Amino acid sequence: MNRILLVEDEPSLRMGLADGLRSEGYEVEERSDGAGGLERALGGGLDAMVLDLMLPRLDGFEVLRRLRGVRNDLPVLVLSARGEESDRILGFEYGADDYVVKPAPLREVVLRLKAILRRAQAVEAGGAQPTAAFGAVEVDFQAYSLVHAGQRHGLNRKEVELLRYLLAHAGEDLSRARLLREVWGQEHANASRTVDTHVFRVRQKIETDPERPRHLLTVRGVGYRFEP
Fold this sequence. Notes:
Elements: E1 3-7, H1 11-23, E2 27-31, H2 34-42, E3 48-51, H3 60-70, E4 76-80, H4 85-93, E5 98-101, H5 106-124, E6 131-134, E7 137-140, E8 145-148, E9 151-154, H6 157-168, E10 174-175, H7 176-184, H8 192-206, E11 216-219, E12 223-226
Parallel strand pairs: 1-2, 1-3, 3-4, 4-5
Antiparallel strand pairs: 6-7, 7-8, 8-9, 10-12, 11-12
């Protein structure tokens, strides 16, 4: 039974979500503010977190930022009424694994939650190599970090998953839509800036000259190609 932390300040919505998730077989812990949610998330013993953004004491963005400063292994599904593209991009930049806009049917929340749990469990099961090396870069997927030319850089969960996918499909022209579908589990074309933002961040860490990349190349009119 997966244990889920639900952080939502609206009592009726929190109760409905918690009851719905329990009916799907999840064990649910509830918190009504950002500070309490962060404290519990840092305490361990959880399989995932469902996080609202507009919370008292600490907003959801700050919860994500502080959480990812300490641990990257807890999958986080953001569930928020803030549906602007800029909010979605910021959520992913801070380390969200998925982002669902309210109001959303319970079925969609459950499916998205299952998807991020499935991806996290696949990594923990050891289905992929724990390390990789290319050029002057050494990646430690388990430690969520890489070393480039002697300098260590931290990676958030999505950067790790993106690098894994790029390495597994080296030499292929990868569209933004394919990356969204395979790495983020999304089909929304208007979320393609999310891919560009993460590519930019990864380039800063793996390229000697990010303006003239050797490894993570732009394929005009398509998307990207990884050349190890």
